[in-house]
Amino acid sequence: MIDFLVLVLILVAINSIVAIGFNIQWGYTGLLNLSSITFVGIGGYVAMVIALPPPGNSGMQYILGLGWPFPIAVLVAMVVCAVLGAILGAIALNRVRAYYLAIVTFCVAEIVHQVVSTYIPLFDGNSGLYGLNPPFSNVVGLANYNDLYLGLCVVILAIVFLFAERLRKSPFGRALRAVREDHDAAQAFGRDVWLLQLKAFVIGCAIAGLGGALLVNFTGALNPDGWTSGETLLLLAAVFLGGSGNNWGVLLGMLLVLGVLQEGTSLIPTWIMSNEQQAALQAMTLGVLLIVILRFRPMGILAETADRDRVEATRSSASRAA
Amino acid sequence: MLLEVKRLSKTFGGVHAAQDCSFSVDTHEIVGLIGPNGAGKSTLINLVSGFESASQGVVLFDGVDVTRKPAHRRSSLGLLRTFQMARIWDRLTLLENLLVAASTPHRELIWRQFLTVSRVRRAEQEDRVRAREVLAEFDLLSMKDMLAGQLSGGQRRLLEFARILMARPRLVLLDEPSASLSPVMSDRIGDGVKGLSRAGIAVLLIEHDLRLVEATCTRILCMAGGKLIAEGSMEELRDNELVVRAYLGATAAALRPQ
Amino acid sequence: MDSLTVLLTSIGFGFVTAAIVALAAIGLSLQIGVTNVPNFAHGELITFGAYGALIVQFVTDNVLLDTLGGMALAGVTAWAMNRFVLQSFVKRGAPRIYLLIATAGLSFFLQNLLAFIFGERTQVLQLPAGSSTGYHVGPFVWTGIDLLIMGAAIVAVAALYVVLQFTKFGKAQRAVSNNPELARVSGIPVNRVINLTWLIAGLLAGLAGVAVAGTTGSMVPTIGSDFLLVVFAAAIVGGLGRPYGALVAAVIVGLVTEVSAAYLNSAYKTTVAVAILVLAILIRPNGIFTVSREIT
């Protein structure tokens, strides 16, 4: 039972890291990045091909294969995601209609998924990559390995959390929120809206890459089936449920969605419904949950601090919805 | 001359939204800009502030040619503006609204949030003290931790003034601040405008409420059909044929003292 | 096959794909035109069309009834989506981005509802006799089902044209699409127009779904969402709210993707469509048929 709990907590920790990055984009700055999981995937793949030895006889095809140690692989993954995020942001953030970023990132997610699945020389296509040795496995015996890895993830989560909180409370964070609320007013007060959005976007993508690198070093394998729109929906549900803009809320939301919802439904015995149906039911519940939250309490359980006076005021949003 | 506008024009799709507009505003002035609906006043404000790009002409601010500069660069130089519908940051508190106005992009660089934390904190503290003073002036201090989105229409306008005071600009373009407000609020707006001037900020006031214009402005420009057609005191404009004709219908009656 | 035949064959496929994409894209374009919310669940409407036909097939093999059944299911689902979910957001004054995310949630829900009921495995759709027979039409060779699909698309678009041009609803729809506030003030029942537009979008998507299932004689719960991006591409490139723009764009997108599939790995079809889309958004965000104006 404890082992199972440790596994779940590792997933919660890693997903929370990704969600905090997403929160910086969405909660702080109002940017809906539907390619968040793409960056998780890219981070994972980059970390793998940096850390794996050259392709050789493994039967897989992939680029690089440098055999470098774990910390470097993670760092490189983050840098690559930051750079790609900067390029994507530079292109996608210029557009005018509010939801274009959502559509463009959605498209990018699909394209990258397809290219990675199809173009074998890159990351071995649909078969994916496997065989990554768990980092530090020569230091600690396999019996307690998961506990160690959980500790590592929690430490990294704490660092990311503190980083995000520092940003949020800082003048930079406040500027991001002003951008979120009203672009024109922000421009009118000397803020380069595009640049601020780009910074938030890049930070979020780099953090997503970090999450991917951590995930891959835990599972030792990665293939395109692991990142689908389902993961995006999970992210959205967790952030909205817990409270967008509030990092504690993100943690709470992830714990509830992953811990309770996902693992909870897997406890339904097989004679009531098949595993396949369980998965479908989980997904259905997630979709409904997201809609219900958006409709009745979009600011989430732990609203953005100081949001306690419920402001989904019709007046301010009616002028925005026009 | 703080603000010099020379032959500013905006044409698109065959429409001359603004044609050949030239005027200036000096420090310590409160200049009014009046004209019937559709005269192009808002376009002119957008052109001067950089929210629209001019087809022709030059905008000089404090000696600097800002004609090709984007809006945020102009506001960084001290040329601020308001909008017809008060644009405040709804889900930030009143205090936070003022803090953002007082802060600068320079202070918001990411590395500064981690490496020069104490310096940033100190600057913030000073701003907080000043913000409370400004809020008190507008009777908004008790609501400093409320979300700005919950303010009434008049209070939103006052918050706009408060933000401008915090930002310490050289000049501000006020876009119809008394629109849809009661006459009582209008008076407070008038006080607000004078307050800005007392704080050393030059003002270009676009307004439909001619009483307000007369009470606050030293010099008045009149615009119609995209062109600046007259300039002078309220009396001079009242006697100006072009101005009278521009205000079809309401005309002379509206311009006479109440 | 020599290169000319390859080209002709792929162009032939292109027209069939164009027909299917056109149906879905026109509906999407109309819907976004009046609501201004991109519907991420549009793919599921397509899928519902296919599964609707499957359900009717339990009762009868009649092609027309199967197709109408599919269309009906998709149409009702679309109408219900708006009436019971999206409208309640709008009434509350929610920001548009929330509606967009809600459609993503709906998409996830609907797709998995089908997976729950029917499972993930491939379901078989019975095709009418003569479906696989090849017919020569000019330089092209099309199967019976291909011709049926293209014919159905032409009929549907013609019917839509009649409705939009000549009926009271059509005129109201165009008014709402152009300027909703003005339409409301002029006494047009905007909400009813929106509901009906969703219904029509659903019917068209449903027809597209039956067609897609018809090309392979099978379906899976993701059959519609696989098309989503291509449909979005056509709708956006053609200009949102411009059904005939979507039609032309669908032909372009259909032809380009199919022809490129003959020369590139066919798995890149969606990538090509999306590349067209991203290019179009960058160059002409309001669609290739609009005059470049100040964008609001």
Structure report:
The complex is a heterotrimer of chains A (322), B (258) and C (296). In chain A, 69% of the residues lie in helices and 0% in strands. Chain A is mainly alpha-helical. Chain A has a domain at 2-226. In chain A, α1 packs parallel to α6. With 258 residues, chain B is α/β, with parallel strands linked by helices. Helices cover 40% and strands 23% of the residues of chain B. Chain B has eleven helices and ten strands. Chain B has helices spanning 41-49, 71-76, 94-102, 112-115, 117-137, 153-167, 183-198, 210-216, 234-238, 241-246, 251-255, and strands at 3-12, 15-25, 30-34, 56-61, 64-65, 79-81, 171-175, 202-206, 219-224, 227-232. Chain B has a six-stranded mixed beta sheet, with helices on both faces. A four-stranded antiparallel beta sheet of chain B has the order 2-1-4-5, with helices on one face. In chain B, β9 and β10 form a beta hairpin. The mean pLDDT of chain B is 88. Chain C is mostly helical and 296 residues long. Chain C has a single domain, classed as ABC transporter involved in vitamin B12 uptake, BtuC (Orthogonal Bundle). Chain C has helices at residues 3-35, 42-57, 63-91, 96-118, 144-166, 168-178, 180-185, 190-216, 225-237, 243-263, 269-283, and strands at 123-124, 134-137, 140-143, 218-219. In chain C, strands 1-4 form a two-stranded antiparallel sheet. In chain C, a hairpin with a 2-residue loop joins β2 and β3 (140-143). In chain C, α3 runs antiparallel to α4 (96-118), α3 (63-91) packs across α8 (190-216) and α9 runs parallel beside α11. Chains A and C meet through α4, α10, α12 and α13 of A and α3, α4, α9 and α11 of C.
Explain briefly what this protein structure is.
The complex is a heterotrimer of chains A (322), B (258) and C (296). Chain A contains 13 helices and no strands.
Helical content band of chain C = over 70%
Count of β-strands of chain A: 0
Helix content of chain A: 55-70%
CATH class of chain C: Mainly Alpha
